[in-house]
Amino acid sequence: MKRYMMIWTFLCCCFASLLAVTPVLEDADNAFLQKKYKEAIRAYETVLQQGENADIYYNLGNAYFRVNDLGRAVLSYERALALAPADEDVRHNLEVCQAKVANQFNLPSEMFFITWLRNLVMHRSCDAWGGYALFSLFLSLLAFGIFRYGRALRLRQVALGVAVLGVLCFVFCNIAAAWNWRSYAHDDRAVVVEPVALVKDSQPKAELIMDLQPGVVVRVVEETLRGWMLVELPNTKTGWLRSEAIEKVKPAVQVPVETAETAVLPAENGENSKDDDR
């Protein structure tokens, strides 16, 4: 009886949370449609305090883009893409923002195959790769059964080939899922959200390397208790900056939030809109 009471209490809490989030989300969507972008930003951030949602991050990024806050727009799109890596609309809007970032870097060259493989793996979520792995396993077992008990020689040969291919796909999908999960679980990227000086040491009067503008994505190498972070730029150069000028892509809150029909809002100024698909 106590177990059922605990389950019932949990379901009631979830339902109450949904009822609390929905009016705020509706207010945010209405404010966005009325071009009250700052109000929409505050409301979306209130909803996101309850947990993560890719569509809300997408809408938040659109709102930041409208008020010309490129740093937080890039941050929101990066967080949305981490939750929904196959979302082409988020990816497109992120590319639009990144093209407007003042600091551009000459990235180190990389083998085409490595770049292609990374894009392939990161273009799907860990759950998606897990689903592909299960399907490959089922297909290989089915094909092996046909090979084992089939009578026609040609059919058995084809079944054996399919079984081997299924095993290879199963192994690859598991490796891709592990790679994808590790990249998300150990995501140390951060986005510059305020103009900041990159210096050679964690001292107030350290030598200036360059000024970074909002929207630059860096990798956090080290943090200090004095409010400094050692970061790595896209071109692999390193330097120190003040921690309040950047925000990590992976937020502190990791619990997904379910909302009643999250509206994906129309886009402007070169942004891609999910409404076009409807």
UniProtKB/TrEMBL annotation:
InterPro entries cross-referenced by the UniProt entry: DUF1058 (IPR010466), SH3-like_dom_sf (IPR036028), SH3_domain (IPR001452), TPR-like_helical_dom_sf (IPR011990), TPR_rpt (IPR019734)
Transmembrane segments: 129-147, 159-181
Keyword Membrane (UniProt): yes
The UniProt record lists the keyword Methyltransferase: no
Signal peptide boundaries: none
Entry keyword set: Membrane, SH3 domain, Transmembrane, Transmembrane helix
Domain SH3 positions: 185-251
PROSITE patterns: SH3 (PS50002), TPR (PS50005), TPR_REGION (PS50293)
Name recorded for this polypeptide: Tetratricopeptide repeat protein
Protein's organism: gut metagenome
